[in-house]
Design a protein that fits this description.
Layout lengths: L4 E9 L3 E10 L2 E11 L9 H14 L6 E6 L5 E6 L5 H15 L7 E7 L5 E8 H13 L3 E7 H8 L7 E9 L2 E8 L2 E7 L12 H20 L9 E8 L5 H11 L2 E4 L18 H12 L25 H63 L4 H11 L6 E8 L4 E8 L2 H13 L3 E11 L7 E9 L6
Parallel strand pairs: 1-4, 4-8, 9-12, 12-13
Antiparallel strand pairs: 1-2, 2-3, 5-7, 6-7, 9-10, 10-11, 14-15, 15-17, 16-17
């Protein structure tokens, strides 16, 4: 008897690496057979798709990968998401309505961003997600140069959330993915995903994760989750909220449970392959980023497309009709005339009754409408602190983290230009402290072109020195 076997490759693109996972699917069951990781460097990154694609092809061949079809996942740092609530509408009208919403809610047009959406099952809304077309073109070019066929470009976090059995009715699940360099969150109610976002926390490196470093990270994580619970997911009608954690940082489960308890969340530490639907025994000892690549591979293994696909968006223009323009106009005119006649007849019989019912409902809804307006105003104000914060705040954060805590060096001015080039001036109790600050600025991937302008003594009889350092803030390198 012949067995239907299908091989699919998942490629998770992160700031630090490309993570690959090959999955073999047989009759709806999946098995992870191999995984690999290609680290990115300043000399090997998305800015040169040809070189990066060649390096990826070499890594895949060296590790024995044989799948030629792939699904690409982007990290949440590249994505913009808006949860759009709507009255119940027909499935055929949803894309047109969301197209209008995109023009209103997103500053960039379709030439700069690629859009897709995840619809609610009952037609009452959708999560609109946007990705930069420049990044999409780069990752697709990398896959093409590696000899791969790209079947979909989606979100790694969404793929992870969709790979686990949906939570029960009236329950919300927050899927938290912790890995080197990033912490991402996807929220879902039932089978509907309502949020995908990168959290503004510093995961640090292995060398930073001493007891004090872990406590600092958990404090930042708790603050971010608390803010999201009060703003982005506050309006979701749920009874309980579960926190599902995919942890590649090696944090103690007891510490994460304390954070969840203070936030009023139930917590579950995810395990692979047991927590992913349809997976049999697979490779063990993998990191969360490799689980994400496995989830991407499964998203492309079945007959259904991924729940989010920027390459084949539901918002893409529809194909032309088979009928001529005149035939279409005549048919539309006939339908409109018929609809107008039927509508007038029905209105004649029931308009007054409907008006009375609407007036009664409007009177009943008056207090609720006012309360909802006040809540929306508060949520809009709180959301502005995150969604519309100035770019230079990230630059100030990276610069501040470079200063030591003992107070032997301080800044007197920071000049920031529109192109994110800046000059930092200050004073120090010794030249060595200035050189240490210069080294930390140079080692930060978010900062480039770090150069000392001058280091000189304030007075001949004093050890105090003044200094000036120029550098440029790069958004792609920010943590």
């Amino acid at each position: 008897m012949l067995t239907s076997r299908k091989k699919t490759l998942g490629l998770s693109f992160t700031r630090a690496a490309i993570v690959a996972a090959e999955v073999v699917s047989t009759h709806g069951r999946h098995r992870l057979v191999r995984a690999g990781r290609l680290a990115l460097t300043p000399q090997l990154d998305l800015s040169d798709p040809n070189a990066l694609g060649g390096a990826l092809r070499h890594m895949l061949r060296a590790k024995g990968f044989s799948a030629s079809r792939c699904v690409i996942g982007l990290e949440a740092a590249h994505l913009l998401a808006r949860d759009k609530r709507l009255p119940s509408v027909a499935a055929g009208s949803l894309a047109d309505i969301l197209g209008i919403a995109i023009e209103q809610d997103f500053a960039s047009d379709n030439q700069e961003l690629a859009f897709d959406y995840i619809p609610a099952g009952d037609g009452t809304g959708a999560l609109i997600v946007a990705a930069p077309r420049r990044v999409m073109d780069q990752v697709v070019a990398v896959a093409d140069n590696a000899g791969l066929t790209v079947e979909a470009v989606t979100s790694s976090s969404v793929a992870m959330a969709a790979s686990v059995a949906a939570p029960a009715d009236k329950r919300m699940r927050l899927t938290l993915i912790l890995a080197d360099g990033a912490a991402e969150l996807a929220a879902q109610t039932g089978d509907r995903i309502i949020l995908v976002r990168r959290l503004a926390v510093d995961t640090g490196t292995d060398d930073d994760r001493d007891a004090q470093g872990r406590q600092r990270f958990l404090g930042e994580l708790e603050s971010e989750l608390h803010r999201l619970l009060l703003t982005a997911v506050a309006e979701a009608p749920v009874e309980t909220t579960e926190l599902l954690v995919w942890d590649a940082l090696g944090l103690e489960a007891a510490m994460l449970r304390q954070v969840a308890q203070r936030l009023g969340l139930s917590i579950r530490m995810a395990r692979f392959p047991g927590d992913m639907e349809g997976f049999d025994e697979s490779l063990s000892g993998l990191a969360a980023t490799e689980f994400s690549a496995a989830a991407l591979a499964v998203a492309g293994a079945g007959k259904k497309t991924p729940v989010l696909d920027f390459l084949h968006s539901r918002l893409s223009p529809r194909q032309g009709r088979r009928f001529g323009r005149l035939s279409v106009l005549i048919a539309v005119a006939a339908i409109v005339m018929l609809a107008v006649g039927v509508s007038l007849f029905l209105d004649w019989r029931s308009s007054q009754q409907e008006i009375d019912q609407l007036r009664s409902r409007l009177a009943d809804l008056g207090p609720s409408v006012q309360q909802a307006k006040e809540l929306a105003d508060k949520a809009s104000l709180a959301r502005g602190w995150f969604d519309r914060r100035p770019r230079f705040l990230d630059c100030l954060r990276e610069t501040t983290l470079a200063f030591p805590e003992e107070g032997r060096i301080w800044a007197t001015s920071l000049v920031v230009r529109e192109d994110m080039r800046m000059v930092l001036s200050g004073k120090s109790l010794g030249e060595e402290t200035v050189l240490n600050l210069l080294d930390r600025l140079k080692s930060n991937p978010a900062l480039a072109e770090v150069k000392p302008l001058y280091i000189r003594k304030v007075a001949a009889s004093s050890q105090e020195v003044s200094f000036a350092i120029s550098f440029r803030f790069t958004v792609s390198g920010a943590t």
